[in-house]
Write a structure and sequence with these properties.
With 502 residues, the chain is an alpha/beta fold. It contains 18 helices and twelve strands.
Length: 502
């Protein structure tokens, strides 16, 4: 016999369940009414002419008894219109993002990989395309190589700071501002060539220098407001820097090299071009010695546009045992005597590229002696030499007397013996030396070079032959060498001269 169980009578102590939003009958009806109202309102845009909407709104305004009510009604209309526009833009963005994610063939990880290969400007353009690209472009991997070189700089400190912050632990390289070299830069009719200031590199040293410790390459071009203190502070935060290039900054050579030698011991490439040709005479011998001792891995060195003396250049070239590339273009005070005793001994013998273009004091005698040592078998790895000079080479004894048609420089002999060398010797067109016009007697004569050398010297001390030459033998210290060659070193302070003796 089945028994029917009746539920117990309700107790006054029983708890009533808390209704959720889905159980509340008011919400569905409210949303339904809102959706119906919005649908009807949006339908007016197609079914009714604009003038009817204007007339309806005017009638509503006229029905308001007070002016404050009319103002309130207008504010509500503005607010409703703004909400509708925001909702429409947000929905359009969602639809576009969904469409792009379906239409874009690459998954997010490959998209990030592609973005990491773009330059920084192109990356910014891609990030502004759509929300999907913007999300991919926010990945730190995309900012491992920051390159902001543009013909017309449009970056500021905030852009640099944002990119360094986004890069985080992925930061490897950084290159900033204009790619126009200082000596090619034109006046911009009062406009600044850059809007970056000294604080643009502060993020490198921020957070205990976390970003700077990851940096391997730093190129800075034409930041007119950069000063020594800011640059040195940035370099102090980059202990693992390998490649430093500075062009057109108003910073001192000596202080910059001191900072490099103190903080960047692993550096391999150093390129420094002065913004004031021939006026920076700040480099001291102790600075050269410290740089050589503390940065032994340098294989590429360029100091362009500075006032450099031969014995300082000799210390650098001979001191860097791995040096393969040397560029001292547009440097003042270099006569060429620093090249002595380099080709057949440790230090300088590995040179592959030597550029001495437009060195105002470069002497034709020293160039001839250098090329003679090349003919004798020194500088075996040399493959590129540039001795071009738009003012001609300096004659022995008086550098104001320029030589445009030197017959003592064995250019054609060098090209014949060392055909693998790219030799650039471009001089002014008036009386420019032409290799092809040399006679066979000039090439084959064994005594023409010594005789011509002796005719160009004041005391005959530079007379030499290919078989016996003090040029190719290291006979003493650097000071003795430069005293023998007649170099004047009294321009340095007394402590500099004493340091040479040590």
């Amino acid at each position: 016999m089945d028994t029917v169980h009746h539920p117990p009578p309700p107790s006054s102590m029983a708890k009533r369940p808390c209704p959720s939003s889905s159980q509340n009958p008011r919400f569905p009806s409210f949303f339904s009414q809102m959706d119906h109202l919005l649908d009807s309102f949006l339908f007016l845009a197609d079914s009714s002419p604009p003038i009817s909407l204007d007339l309806s709104f005017d009638r509503l305004l006229d029905s308001c008894p007070y002016d404050t009510d009319r103002s309130l009604l207008i504010d509500r209309a503005h607010k409703l219109g703004s909400l509708l526009i925001s909702a429409a833009n947000r929905s359009a963005g969602k639809r576009a993002s969904l469409h792009n994610s379906i239409a874009w063939a690459l998954p997010p990880d490959l998209t990030i990989k592609v973005f990491s290969m773009l330059d920084s400007q192109s990356l910014c353009y891609a990030a502004a395309t759509c929300s999907m690209f913007n999300k991919c472009a926010m990945e730190p991997f995309c900012y491992a190589n920051i390159d902001l070189t543009t013909i017309v700089p449009k970056v500021n400190n905030a852009v640099v700071s944002t990119m360094i912050r986004r890069a985080g632990k992925s930061l490897q390289n950084s290159a900033d501002v204009s790619s126009i070299s200082w000596n090619d830069k034109k006046t911009r009719q009062g406009k600044e060539s850059s809007i970056l200031t000294r604080s643009c590199l502060y993020p490198l040293s921020g957070k205990s220098g976390a970003a700077g410790t990851l940096l391997r390459r730093l190129h800075l071009y034409n930041i007119e407001r950069m000063d020594n203190a800011s640059l040195c502070a940035a370099l102090s935060a980059c202990p693992y820097l390998l490649d430093l290039e500075i062009v057109g900054l108003h910073v001192e050579l000596r202080q910059t090299l001191m900072s490099v030698s103190s903080n960047c011991h692993l550096i391999e490439r150093l390129f420094f071009e002065s913004s004031k040709t021939g006026r920076d005479d700040s480099l001291k011998v102790p600075t050269c010695v410290d740089l050589v001792n503390n940065c032994p891995n340098i294989f590429s060195l360029a100091m362009r546009g500075f006032k450099l003396h031969d014995y300082k250049v000799h210390l650098l070239v001979k001191g860097f045992l791995k040096l393969k590339y040397a560029d001292f273009s547009t440097s003042y005070s270099i006569t060429g005597t620093f090249l002595r005793n380099l080709g057949s001994c440790i230090g300088g013998n590995l040179l592959e590229v030597l550029i001495l273009r437009d060195c105002m004091h470069l002497k034709e005698v020293e160039v001839a002696l250098f090329l003679t040592s090349v003919l004798a078998g020194d500088f075996k790895f040399l493959r590129h030499l540039d001795i071009s000079n738009r003012e001609g080479l300096a004659s022995e004894g008086d550098w104001y007397h320029r030589s445009y048609n030197s017959s003592i420089i064995p250019l054609k002999q060098v090209l014949k013996v060392r055909p693998n060398i790219c030799l650039l010797a471009e001089f002014p067109s008036e009386g420019c030396f032409d290799i092809d016009r040399m006679t066979d007697s000039d090439i084959n004569s064994e005594v023409s070079l010594p005789l011509q050398l002796s005719s160009h010297t004041s005391d005959g001390s530079l007379l030499m032959s290919l078989s016996e030459s003090s040029y190719n033998s290291d006979q003493g210290s650097g000071k003795e060498e430069y005293q023998d060659s007649g170099l004047i070193i009294y321009e340095e302070s007394s402590d500099e001269v004493d340091f040479l003796v040590v």
